[in-house]
Amino acid sequence: MNVTWDDRGLAPAIVQDASTGSVLMLGWMDQEALDATERTGDVHFHSRSRGKLWRKGETSGNSLHVVSIAADCDGDALLVRAHPTGPVCHTGSATCWGDDPAPTLARTLSELASLLAERKRDLPEGSYSATLFREGVAKIAQKVGEEGLEVALAAVSETRERTISEMTDLLYMLLVLVIEMDLKPEEIAASLAEKKRISAAKAGRPASG
After folding, report:
1. With DSSP H G I counted as helix, E B as strand and the rest as coil, what are the percentages for the chain, rounded to 5?
2. Which residue has the higher pLDDT, 205 or 92?
3. Where are the domains of the chain?
4. Which of 64, 112, 71 lies closest to 88, judged by CA?
5. Euclidean distance between CA atoms 43 and 13, whole angstroms
6. Spatial separation of the C-alpha atoms in residues 141 and 145, rounded to whole Å
7. Mean pLDDT of 187-196
8. What does the alpha-carbon distance between residue 44 and residue 64 come to, in Å, rounded to a whole number?
9. Residues of 93-132 as b/e, b for ≥16 C-beta within 10 angstroms?
């Protein structure tokens, strides 16, 4: 990646939620911060006030798990797409511009994806997610199938609340599979968009409708 650093060796880095598209914050990166971000998977910045490297969330615990980094057309600004583990702003707001206008479900899934990425990286003892990642894709796929069956059974024979519980179990397990297979949000979005296009074509209306 070719970055044109300013006379201080810095470039602005705009952080965007990889799942919702919401703009979360603006930070500053130098080559050290960029290297640390790419090496660890956690977003790092250069602190202009302290004059040193810092990892987002190192004190608050609200880290950012990087999905992609790209320079703009001039190479003098960076777009960092990431999953947040919690509120990004030091004020407690979801973004540095206030509460995140993104749908609650999208934000929750993005935060869960970030947490699962950490579990896969660190494999902490006592974590169910880490156990699944240790067992690999075949075991995770099996669990997806089991949870899908549980959803179907709950939908036809159990309560609404029980069905919702089983649905969230299935969503969780699908996200584990997404992280294990290193799938990108844009890949899933593209597949959904294609299904929407096909459905619209069959109905004889534009896909945007």
Report:
1. 45, 20, 35
2. 92
3. 11-84, 123-203
4. 64
5. 10
6. 6
7. 88
8. 9
9. ebbbeeebebeeeebebbbbbbbbbbbbeeeeeebebbeb
CB within 8 A of 173, min separation 6: which ones? Answer: 140, 143, 144, 147
Cα–Cα distance measured from residue 133 to residue 157, given in angstroms and rounded to the nearest whole number: 32
Tokens of 157: 């024979």
CATH code matching the domain that covers 123-203, chosen among 1.10.150.170, 1.10.287.1080, 2.30.40.10, 1.10.10.10: 1.10.287.1080
Q: What is the CA radius of gyration of the chain?
A: 20
CA dihedral 179, 184, 185, 191 (to 10 degrees): -110
Which of the 8 DSSP states describes residue 71? E
User: 29-82 pLDDT, tens per residue?
Assistant: 999 999 999 999 999 999 999 999 999 999 899 999 999 999 999 999 999 999
The partner residues of 14 in beta bridges, in order of sequence, read 26, 79
Q: 11-84 has which CATH code?
A: 3.10.20.810
| CA-to-CA separations, 55 to 43, 89, 189, 199, in angstroms, rounded | 6, 14, 29, 44
- Block residue for tokens 């911060």: 33
The DSSP element (H or E) to which 187 belongs, if any, is helix 185-203
